Amino acid sequence: MTAHHELLSTHISRRAFGKRAARFSLAGTVALIAAACGAAGPTKEELTAVEDELKSLQLEVRKLRGGAAASDDGHGAPAAAADSHGAAPKATSASSSHGSTTSATTSTAAKDTHGATTAAASADAHEAPHWAYEGAGGPAEWGKLGAENAVCGTGTTQSPIDISFTQTVAGGRTVFRWDPNSALTVVNNGHTIQANLAKGSTIEIDGTPYDLLQFHFHAPSEHTVEGKQMAMETHFVHKNERGELAVIGVMHALGVENGALAPIWTALPREGDKRSVPSFDLLSVLPRERHMFRYAGSLTTPPCSEGVRWHVMQAPTTVSQSQVAAFLELFKGGNSRPVQPLKARDILREAA
Fold it and tell me: pLDDT (tens digit, 9 = 90+) per residue, 154-213?
């Protein structure tokens, strides 16, 4: 049974409605026959009565349609159930008098509007598409997971890359002004271990300051040097006043334990968890020799936004096998995007 029929049976009797419609149809038919036969036709009063009856029936039909949600927004929810801000309006008198059927329809409409109930609503980009490092949703599919991630597949300056065929650039200098006693909030976001920190640490690239926002880890390394991949890589993400990003990359070869990372590795949080590190020496993660490779790249995770200034340390530090194992216990299979085509880009070797 359709919603219209249900409402018709609960609001007024179908027989009573039928009688009223029949009266209108009969009056109209009589008027047409009289006019065709050349008779005087219906009086003004009779026509007025027919018009009044028509208006009454139209009003009744509008009430019924309003309660039954005759207009559909494509998700099976009434278009009138949400206003332009996505909020469900208050119940009308028709919905309140029609009982549970209309209430259920309105409730469903509100949920559909917010993308919390139906699969169709979720597909409308209310939820970010799932991405991963392998299998379904892996790097080869990132560019197909939604329009916002298209550049992952179509971009021309994507990261990471294999670092080779470098040119030495004179001048240009990166100055570190990182707090050696930074308080960290370490989180597991399901893709990596990330350390967030308060404002106060900066770098200066060719005279432009960038604030350090967070740093995180990848295993194995995302960048390679002349085809060689290392055990891990740390990315320090910065942003300037114009919203432009600059990332410092530090690669870690397999070797002795990295004491600088020990305060974080003491208790790596599980997915969704976080912990505090009251004091952390950011500079201790960097190698002693701070010469860097420079190139124009992108984020290495969706949405793969381009326009990122990459500075990758030429010299690696080390991490132990146990440190790598502890990280991979949380991110089985690793969390590294494969290297991307260099295309028409230069890799510069920053001179001391």
Answer: 999 999 999 998 888 766 789 999 999 999 999 999 999 999 999 999 999 999 999 999
* CA gap 333, 335 in Å, rounded: 7
- In 172-223, at which residue ranges do the beta strands (DSSP E only) sit? 174-177, 182-188, 193-197, 202-205, 208-218
The answer to whether the beta carbons of residues 309 and 296 sit under 8 Å apart is yes
Residue appearing with tokens 């194992």: 325
pTM for the whole thing? 0.65
Q: Which domains does the chain have, with CATH numbers?
A: 3-119 (no CATH), 139-350 (3.10.200.10)
* Contact of 317 with 136, CB cutoff 8 Å: no
191 tagged catalytic: yes
SS3 readout for 296-317? EEECCCCCCCEEEEEEEECCCE
Catalytic: which of 11, 191, 218, 235? 191
Which two structure tokens, joined as six digits, stand for 51? Answer: 């018009």
> Which tokens belong to 342?
């260099």
* 226: alpha, beta or left? (left if phi > 0; alpha if psi -120 to 50): left
Q: Which long-range contacts (CB under 8 A, 24 or more apart) does 129-138 make?
A: 129/302, 131/301, 131/302, 133/191, 133/331, 133/333, 133/334, 133/335, 133/336, 133/337, 134/333
Neighbours of 205 (CB within 10 A): 20
Give residue for tokens 């049976």: 9
Asked whether the beta carbons of 116 and 110 are under 8 A apart, the reply is: no
